[in-house]
Specification:
The complex is a heterodimer of chains A (112) and B (113). Chain A is mostly beta strands and 112 residues long. Chain A contains no helices and 11 strands. In chain A, the strands form 2 sheets. In chain A, strands 2, 4, 5, 9, 10 and 11 form a 6-stranded mixed β-sheet that branches. In chain A, strands 1-3-8-7-6 form a 5-stranded antiparallel β-sheet, with no helix packed on it. In chain B, 0% of the residues lie in helices and 50% in strands. In chain B, 36% of the residues are buried. Classes of the chains: A mainly beta (112), B mainly beta (113). Chains A and B meet through strand 4, strand 5, strand 9 and strand 10 of A and strand 5 and strand 10 of B.
C-alpha cells in the first residue's frame, strides 16, 4: 500500500503565483523528502526534512512537516515556467525494512 | 562527479523476450535501489541493495524479475520472460548513507508489446 499520497494530483497556475502541494503518509517516519521529475528525466532531490523539524526553506521552496497529522506541504513561491514538473514526496519509515516510499505525485503546470 | 547512469534509456521488446537493464550508481554509494513507475501511478519500490547484498526485495513483482549487483558496483535487472504489464519506467537510485537523499538515474522506458 502507498505510504505517501500527494494532492492535488494536478495543479495549473500562472507564472508568479505560489504553488502548494500536500503529502499525507500513514506510518511514523525518520524523514520526508520532496523530489521533482521533469518530463522524460529522472527524479531530482529538492529538500529533506527530518521528523524533529517542522519547517525548512531552500530558495523559493518551503516545506512543512506535521508529524501529528502525518502530513507535509511543499510551497513553491513566485513560480516560473521552468517549475513545470511532477513533484513527489518520499517517506523513510521508522518501522519495517528500510526503503523510501513514493506517492503518485502532483503534476504542476506553470503557465507563462 | 558522474551521476547515476542507466542503460538503455529505452527498450521495446515483444512479450516473452528477455531484457536486461543496467544501473551504474555514483562511485562509493553502497545503497542502490530499483523503482518502477507505470503510467500515472506511484513510483513503486522494487528492491534495495547494500553493496552486493539484497536488503529488501519485497517489491519485486514475481520470479520473472532478477536483480544482481556483483561486486557491489553496478547492478542489473533482468526480466525474463517479459509480460505486457512489465511496461513502465524503471529507475535506479543510489545513496551514500541510509536516511539520506537519493540520486536518481534518468530511467529506462520499457515497452513490452
Amino acid at each position: 500500500s502507498q505510504q505517501g499520497e500527494e494532492d492535488p494530483q494536478a495543479l495549473s497556475i500562472q507564472e508568479g503565483e505560489n504553488a502548494t502541494m500536500n503529502c499525507s503518509y500513514k506510518t511514523s517516519i525518520n524523514n520526508l523528502q520532496w523530489y521533482r521529475q521533469n518530463s522524460g528525466r529522472g527524479l531530482v532531490h529538492l529538500i529533506l526534512i527530518r521528523s524533529n523539524e517542522r519547517e525548512k526553506h531552500s530558495g523559493r521552496l518551503r516545506v512543512t512537516l506535521d508529524t501529528s497529522k502525518k502530513s507535509s506541504s511543499l510551497l513553491i513561491t513566485a513560480s516560473r515556467a521552468a517549475d513545470t514538473a511532477s513533484y513527489f514526496c518520499a517517506t523513510d519509515r521508522t518501522s519495517g525494512t528500510y526503503k523510501y516510499i513514493f506517492g503518485t505525485g502532483t503534476r504542476l503546470k506553470v503557465l507563462a | 562527479e558522474a551521476g547515476v547512469t542507466q542503460f538503455p534509456s529505452h527498450s521495446v521488446i515483444e512479450k516473452g523476450q528477455t531484457v536486461t537493464l543496467r544501473c551504474d550508481p555514483i562511485s562509493g554509494h553502497d545503497n542502490l535501489y530499483w523503482y518502477r513507475r507505470v503510467m500515472g501511478k506511484e513510483i513503486k519500490f522494487l528492491l534495495h541493495f547494500v553493496k552486493e547484498s539484497k536488503q529488501d526485495e519485497s517489491g519485486m513483482p514475481n520470479n520473472r524479475f532478477l536483480a544482481e549487483r556483483t561486486g557491489g558496483t553496478y547492478s542489473t535487472l533482468k526480466v525474463q520472460p517479459a509480460e505486457l504489464e512489465d511496461s513502465g519506467v524503471y529507475f535506479c537510485a543510489s545513496s551514500q548513507d541510509r536516511h539520506e537523499k537519493l540520486f536518481f538515474g534518468s530511467g529506462t522506458q520499457l515497452s513490452v508489446l
